[in-house]
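Appendix B. Chain record.
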Amino acid sequence: MKVGLLGHGVVGGGVRKIIDDGLTWEVRELEVKKILVRDASECIDPRTTLNADEILNDPEIDVIVECMGGLEPAHTYVRKALENGKYVVTSNKKMLATYCSELFDAARKNNVTVHYEAACGGGIPWMASLDRTRRVDDIISFRGIFNGTTNYILERMSREHSSFAEKLQEAQKLGYAEQDPSDDIDGHDVRYKVSLSCVKAFDTLQNIEDIAVFGIRNIREEDLAWCARNNLACKLLGSGEYYGDCISAYVMPVFLDNEDVFADIPLNFNAIESNSLTLGRAMFVGQGAGSLPTAHAVVQNIIDIVKNQDPEINDKHPVPVDNSRHEGCYYIRTADPSAFAGIKAEDISDTALLSRKVSLQEIVRLANQAEDDTLFIAEVRK
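Structure tokens predicted for this chain:
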């Protein structure tokens, strides 16, 4: 099967290497025919081109692998590939989560499929696990550490009693965080992954803007000190819960009991857990990013296509996100505690309080109303 690569960076370069090396008979059935690069300086391989149409319109190419990142031109190229009757494998979580419904429709109309194992969890076979579980079971919920950057920052802050700014800078030096880390620390990276996990786990389509997001940009040492005094660990979790007529979907810091399985996930690792009716809880831990782990997931999807193993079990249905269905107690630190007086259970300090049990939807409403740039909120699960 001939493959066209859109992008030859960290992930695309890894895909090309795995296929060229051909370490297994399955991989040796694949061939990278053409590679789209950004500029002439990258044209060091005879297969490279600066013209996407040479790949998208090539009748010999069966599969388009999109590893460009960003919304455009990735979205336009993927749409055209599907309309040309080509299978698509993508690692681009932001693009796919944003245009999921449109691209799935285009694939269905042209009798091809979109595969996206690498878009969520990197090298962890998270999507494949959901597919296997769904063959015999209904998934009730999932939760996980979907972002290694924030996990690294939180763990190092907790262990070393250091500041957020210091650990963010350290993560950037190690290559775990981008120079603009906003998508990671503000929770948007996890939001895209939660959306795609809902697609796979629940057969649902949703507006990603409806997924509630609280990041860790404003976390302080005092928040983690309270966490430690109460024998809790802080993790940024993405979660989805299925209620039949709606889902609850959200991203937020969570203060977990130290006995919780997620409490000890180290450094930049990812860990994701599904909960289903007969299998119960099933968890995966591993590297959620990086060239070869992510490329490994891409190549697995290409082999799925070769073997005619379609991962999409059922049609996808738009359902609303209703975060009033999820209730919890919340640690809230704010410049204006009076804004949250109506849900207060106890004071923690002059600027921090613990809420009574309340819906996440109410927390979102009050947070938006407070308009506090220093606000930090975490769910407390003892």
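Further analysis of this model is presented in Appendix C.
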